[in-house]
Amino acid sequence: MRKVFFILLSAIPFLATAQVHFVIKGHVSSIKPPAKIYLAYRKNEGSKQGTIDTSIVKDGNFEFSGDVPDTTVANLVVDYAAEGLKTMMMKRGGADSKQIYLVNGTTNIEGNDSLHYAKMIGTKVNEDLYTLNTMLEPAVRKWIAADKAGNTDLYNKAMDQRRELSINFIKQHTDSYVSLAMALPNVMGGERDTSFVPYYNSLSANVRSTKKGVDMRGFIQSLKAIGPGVMAPDFTQPDTSGKAVSLSSFRGKYVLLDFWASWCGPCRAENPNVVKLYNKYKTKNFTILSVSLDRSKDRKEWMNAIHHDHLAWTQVSDLKYWKNGAAELYGIEAIPQNFLIGPDGKIVAVNLFGEDLDKQLAQIFKN
After folding, report:
1. Which of 214, 225, 230, 248 has its CA 20 to 30 Å from the CA of residue 130?
2. What is the pLDDT of residue 46?
3. With 60 as the cut, is the pLDDT of residue 11 above it?
4. Could you tell me if 5 and 216 are in contact, meaning their C-beta atoms sit under 8 angstroms apart?
5. Strand partners, 339
6. What is the torsional sign of CA 157, 76, 32, 118?
């Protein structure tokens, strides 16, 4: 199934010039005592420490207010039986919840049957968020059902539908922060390409100049820096015997630079295909260099996976998990990922799997 980038939400500059004071007032008639509603968020982006506020529901009404350093994404969660957030969240079937932005001003939430489907009005960002989520609901339902059933074909169709709906939202809301922070990641998917860039460029200058917009521009530049047509950054890491191996030592051959790990299920599932293609093309100036994102304490598992999956090509790793030097150099935030590199050291293609990789190699070697 396709990987999806989850981009951290950040600030809106015209809201970031001062402390944000938020007010949330809600009325959902179906929520009755002894129910409680929790507001969960992080005051600082990237912080490990979360904040959880609680509101007692009376006659369907609840209210939150407070201050945060910047516009902040949060989640409202209903605890119908007042069992406690931890106990309630572990229940099968999930919770009645709603995503919301903590922004200057008062956001009103009005609903009847559930918090999840309640309407948000009063602040533009949350009104736009409600509009987007309403548009995406049919695709999300299909996506969740397909994921539970393990139906890859239906899952991918639902993801495609979500992408198209998100594109339509962006086209209709070019001056909305939600287009940048919520809709655009749905367009990006998990591929390291730049097909989403025109939609980013279509956003207003006001949106693109937000901190999130500036961060996104930097992300786009990083994709272009490590993509087809550019020189693959060189690195050196130890192989399974401790010998230092450099990417540049393979110059003159086509090299599939493959990022994986023994603990990565999708990576292990792709390995049989990679083995098949390695055996098919290894006599035609083609090889593979695999970089593992395993940890030092998992060295044995790394070695066992190499043996079990019959990975006969060069394997390297500094065993630093996501802090792997090569992974950081290539901006790896999800695996599996790969880079097909030509004999001249330039990147030919990115993230080719299954039949796509076979077709690319067949075209190169005229097989």
Report:
1. 214
2. 57
3. no
4. no
5. 257, 350
6. negative
Q: How far apart are CA 62 and CA 36, in angstroms?
A: 9
Q: Tell me the pLDDT tens digit for each residue of 33-46.
A: 999 999 999 887 65
Measured between alpha carbons, how far is residue 326 from residues 178, 263, 274, 287, 293 in Å? 33, 18, 20, 18, 9
Q: Is the dihedral of CA 257, 259, 261, 264 positive or negative?
A: negative
What strands, in cross-sheet order, belong to the sheet with 119-121? 61-68, 20-28, 105-111, 119-121
- Name the pTM for this structure: 0.65
C-beta separation of 261 from 290 below 8 A: no
**3 state DSSP class of 248:** helix
Phi, then psi, of 10 in degrees rounded to 5: -140, -160
DSSP letters spanning 269-330: HHHHHHHHHHHHHTTTTEEEEEEE--BGGGHHHHHHHHHHTT--SEEE---BGGG-HHHHHT
Identity of residue 310 = H
Q: What is the mean pLDDT of the chain?
A: 88
| pLDDT tens figures, 225-260 | 788 888 999 999 999 999 999 999 999 999 999 999
DSSP 242: S
Lowest pLDDT segment from 1-10, 106-115, 210-219, 319-328: 1-10
Coil vs helix vs strand at 169: helix
DSSP class of residue 155 equals H
Q: Which CATH class is domain 13-115?
A: mainly beta
Token reading at 184? 């655009």
At 4, is the pLDDT very low, low, confident or very high (cuts 50, 70, 90)? Answer: very low
Indicate if the alpha-carbon torsion angle 25, 28, 33, 37 is positive or negative.
negative
Residue 214: both structure tokens together: 């500036």
Which amino acid does the sequence have at 198? P
Strands 61-68 and 51-56: unpaired
Cα 204 to Cα 123, 197, 207, 296, distances in angstroms: 19, 13, 5, 47
Distance CA 230, CA 222 (A): 12
3-class DSSP state for residue 72?
strand
Lookup: tokens for 175 = 């001056």
Between CA 290 and CA 311 the distance in angstroms is 9
Domain 236-365 has CATH 3.40.30.10: yes
Residue ranges of domains in the chain: 13-115, 236-365
